[in-house]
Design goal:
By secondary structure, the chain is mainly β. Helices cover 5% and strands 55% of the residues. It has six helices and 40 strands. The chain has a 22-stranded antiparallel beta barrel. A hairpin with a 6-residue loop joins strand 27 and strand 28. The longest helix is centred in the C-terminal third of the chain and has 9 residues. It is globular and about 75 Å long. The relative contact order is 0.15.
Length: 696
């Protein structure tokens, strides 16, 4: 659900110059053709050579088009991706017509300076306000569509989003800024970049600290009737009232739009060593099924990511990259629930405290061999090992007295080691032909080893034209939460397998006179998707009879469904007037159908069939402003659970258009001071996500 609103924001920065227009006579066609991506193969290459469909969003575009988060940048500027919000901490991320409600971005792999951000407990990674990724420090964002497990392992099913921060030369000096979404939020930030020399080696540091707080707006939540509680034969209680009405919502609340975040991101380099660091402390509202309406439930997130990397040309043929890292985080959630059996005392209201913790320590080495010293025959091999730990505990208290109701359940404390090895061979026997073959083997002690292959062919049959054909596999390992969490209504999962995806893709691209046109078709097949299985009354009784549970369980996580998805991506972009006038359009149309056991295939809920974006900007000369407009649009989307909850008729969210104009530039006569003013307008106030109780 999204409020129908107009947003205005401002940004002022000290010691920041507005980007200048490209010099007259600049070979813009060459610039477009030479867009460089690294995430597709772990080696730098021009985008039309990479074995994937990709978008590169530059720092100039982020500021010019007024993107406030990585998620907004994807919606407004990237090809084939889209996001949605269910008012929880993590945005849902979709690509190529597949968006899985409640997945918290776990089917995308998020990298920062090449380091995995997704955590091991729930696999999630945020690209919204709680991502800890300040826009000012980002040099560029690489969006690689399609399976990426061949080099990165788990989570890279929809694609890889690689965020690269700026070097000191692009972020030099002290910088300070303030941004406001008037009148509901504030975001001050402080940055610093500096080059130096130490012990005879050149070094640099670039970093930014930000604080964000949002205190509104107040949202009206339509009433939803949850029905009769089978434990009491009375209407469910969704408030602190001693008598339940079975109704959740029906009033204004600001508890669903209160966010707070502090973060620090940066990197330091000395000689051949580079240190990336990322720290985050955030507070968000909760969106827990059957939590009491309007209560001050919240989640507190903490993350610490530290990576030390080494890169060196060892010989004229051998280049080595290696790194060691720690990714630690925890989530402490407090919420209130008064319904049975979560709160077994009908005279009390209950407060729940849930703690999830994870730590991953890893090391990876990736040597590559450029056999002919000219990039035409390159072998890359790699191996990594991770020591992982995850922990969970859930406690239940009387909200009024603090007396314990249920303590130390939902407990798991698991440690293990996962290892992987991969290899990639690229070969360009002639200038117009490129081959890429790669494979990765992942060993996780929870399931059988997983092999992820990729085969790609590139042909340049005429000047400026490129044809690609790509076959690839990807997987997502069950999170520790899915594998080990349990509580009275949910037994521990047994024998969970990874989710798998098989993908076929073909594309044609033409570059001419500073412009590029791309059209690509794809087909994917997803199997073993993990979702909740609802027990029948007989199955619940059998669980108790077999001594597996004290209370009849309601559901359990299993590998249940599959998805078939096919469609096309199309893009057009270009620039004129010495790069001052820029424009682009991205469009995706796709069909996605989900198959549940014993049921007919249905359209995949919350997934639009057609979506895309468009942007246009003009850099006025001198100190005059840059004027930019970005649009994103999507067709109607089926409501979450639309085809499984018995709705009549099937509910859809309305089609949506987002209009996002921006004016930015230097403030005349004040050296180093700049501004940015943006507006935000959405044509609908609804998104297809369920909040509150699960209705059936």
């Amino acid at each position: 659900m999204r409020a129908h609103h107009l947003f205005l924001g401002t940004l002022a920065a000290l010691l920041v110059r507005a980007p200048a227009a490209a010099a007259d006579g600049e070979d813009l066609a060459g610039l477009l053709n030479e867009t460089v991506v690294t995430a597709a193969t772990q080696t730098a290459e021009v985008s039309h050579d990479a074995p994937a469909t990709s978008t590169v969003i530059t720092s100039d575009a982020l500021l010019k088009y007024g993107a406030r988060t990585v998620g907004e940048a994807l919606d407004l500027l990237a090809l084939g991706t889209m996001s949605g919000s269910d008012l929880s901490a993590f945005s849902d991320l979709g690509a190529r017509g597949v968006s899985i409600a409640g997945s918290s971005g776990e089917h995308f792999l998020i990298l920062v300076n090449g380091v995995r951000v997704n955590d091991v407990v729930n696999g999630a990674a945020s690209v919204g306000r709680l991502s800890g990724m300040p826009i000012e420090l980002i040099d560029h964002i690489e969006v690689i569509l399609g399976p990426g497990s061949v080099l990165y392992g788990s989570n890279a099913m929809l694609g890889v989003i690689s965020i690269v921060t700026k070097e000191a030369k692009a972020f030099s000096g002290a910088r300070v800024g303030i941004e406001s979404e008037i009148p509901t939020s504030i975001r001050p930030w402080l940055g610093f970049g500096q080059s130096f020399e130490l012990f005879g080696s050149r070094g640099e540091i670039s970093t930014e600290i930000e604080y964000f707080k949002q205190w509104g707006p107040s949202l009206y939540v339509e009433p939803a009737y949850g029905g009769i509680d089978p434990a009491t034969n009375k209407p469910y209680r969704y408030t602190f009232s001693p008598v339940g009405t079975g109704v959740w919502g029906g009033a204004d609340t600001s508890t669903l739009s209160q966010y707070e975040e502090s973060s620090m991101l940066g990197r330091a380099r000395l000689g051949k060593f580079e240190l990336t660091y990322d720290a985050l402390l955030g507070k968000t509202p909760t969106n827990v099924v059957a939590s009491d309406f309007g209560t001050e439930g919240h989640s507190i997130y903490r993350r610490l990511l530290v990576d030390l990397g080494y890169a060196a040309q060892l010989t004229s043929i051998v280049f080595l990259k290696a790194h060691t890292f720690v990714n630690a985080g925890d989530t402490n959630t407090t919420f209130y629930s008064s319904w049975e059996p979560n709160c077994p005392d009908p005279s009390a209201n209950c407060r729940f405290n849930s703690l999830l913790e994870s730590v991953v320590e890893g090391v990876e080495a990736t040597p590559s061999f450029d056999w002919f010293k000219n990039g035409t025959l390159v072998t890359l091999v790699g191996a990594e090992a991770e020591r992982r730990s995850g922990r969970s505990v859930l406690n239940d208290f009387n909200a009024a007295t603090g007396a314990p109701v249920l303590l130390s359940y939902g407990v798991f404390d698991h440690k293990d080691v996962a290892v992987a090895a991969y290899a990639q061979q690229t070969w360009d026997p002639v200038r117009w032909l490129g081959l890429n073959a790669a494979g990765r083997l992942d060993y996780d002690p929870r399931f059988n080893p997983v092999f992820s292959p990729r085969l790609a062919l590139r042909v340049d049959p005429w000047s400026g034209g490129t044809l690609k054909a790509i076959y690839s596999h990807a997987f997502r390992a069950p999170s520790f939460y899915e594998s080990y969490f349990s509580y009275p209504l949910q037994p521990t999962s047994v024998g969970l397998r990874p989710e798998y995806e098989e993908s076929f893709e073909g594309s044609i691209e033409q570059r001419f006179a500073g412009q590029k046109i791309l059209f690509g078709a794809f087909a994917t097949h997803w199997t073993d998707l993990i979702s909740y299985y609802q027990f029948t009354a007989q199955e619940s009784a059998q669980y108790v009879a077999n001594g597996k549970a004290f209370l009849p369980p309601a559901y359990i996580e299993r590998n249940l469904s599959s998805i078939k998805n096919w469609g096309f991506n199309a893009a057009f972009e270009g620039a004129r007037v010495s790069n001052a006038f820029q424009y682009g359009v991205n469009l995706t149309a796709a069909l996605a159908f989900q198959q549940q056991p014993g049921a007919a295939a249905t359209p995949l809920d919350v997934s639009p069939r057609v979506f895309g974006n468009a942007h246009v900007s003009y850099d006025l000369p001198g100190d005059l402003p840059t004027i930019a407009l970005a649009l994103s649009a999507e067709t109607a989307r089926p409501f979450q659970g639309a085809f499984t909850a018995g709705y009549e008729p099937i509910p859809y969210s309305p089609p949506q258009l987002i209009i996002h104009p921006t004016i930015s530039g230097p403030i005349p006569a004040v050296r180093g001071l700049s501004y940015r003013v943006t507006a935000f307008y959405a044509t609908t106030d609804r998104e297809p996500y369920r909040i509150g109780p699960a209705l059936s």
